[in-house]
Specification:
There is one protein chain. The chain is mainly beta and 204 residues long. The protein has 2 helices and 12 strands; from the N terminus they run αβαβββββββββββ. It has helices spanning 2-23, 39-42; strands at 32-35, 55-60, 65-85, 89-106, 111-116, 125-130, 133-138, 150-156, 159-170, 175-182, 186-192, 197-201.
Length: 204
């Protein structure tokens, strides 16, 4: 009887020790962290900060006009696994994505823009869809004079633009489109190399 009691006591101590290790000693309660896009990042485009860009118009060199009106701005959170261990659980890191959805009120086209934050990575992205062309660039590239894609000044459509960045869209074999972008106008020129069409922004 004493042997059985002793064995049961030892087993209970082992179970308590394991419970403490998982829930107390050496463990902490996993945390959730939310990492929003900051003001400096949002200032890389006018889409989330300037109400004048709730409506955006482009004219083509073929005489067509596209006008897009923002219908909503929504936020999603990209989840990544943070610090932790299998016994205790892991932290959860949520990084913000802002998206502007636009409807087309003139012409036949489409427009959408996202600003994507990645908490555990060093690169954040600005992503566009202009008609059927998807563009993407790191947000820190915009206005970075050390980047090879930086252009100091360009004249387009009787207007001068400064501190701009060229963003190229390619498939597996060739460039299919490119756009210019800066912090004041977002994308203000798009050239579709497949359709051989140039688009100029009309926003002042």
């Amino acid at each position: 009887m004493k042997t059985t009691t002793k064995l049961l006591s030892i087993l209970l101590l082992i179970m308590l020790n394991q419970s403490c290790t998982k829930n107390g000693g050496g463990c902490y309660t996993p945390q959730s962290y939310y990492i929003p896009l900051n003001a400096a990042q949002l200032d890389q485009t006018p889409y989330f900060t300037n109400p004048a860009f709730d409506t955006i118009s482009f004219a083509s060199d073929k005489g067509d006009t596209l006008t897009f009106v923002k219908t909503k701005t929504d936020t999603t959170w990209y989840e990544e696994q943070g610090n932790g261990n299998p016994d205790c659980g892991y932290d959860r890191v949520f990084s913000q994505t802002l998206r502007n959805t636009y409807t087309t009120i003139k012409g036949n086209g489409s427009f959408e823009v996202k600003h994507v934050k990645k908490g555990l990575q060093i690169f954040d992205f600005i992503q566009f869809r202009f008609n059927q062309i998807n563009f993407s660039t790191h947000d820190w590239v915009i206005g970075d004079k050390s980047n090879p894609a930086f252009i100091d000044n360009i004249n387009l459509g009787n207007r001068s633009y400064n501190n701009l960045t060229k963003i190229v869209k390619s498939n597996s074999t060739e460039d299919i489109a490119y756009t210019f972008m800066n912090v004041n106008f977002g994308i203000f020129y798009v050239e579709d190399l497949i359709e051989k069409t140039q688009w100029f922004i009309l926003n002042k």
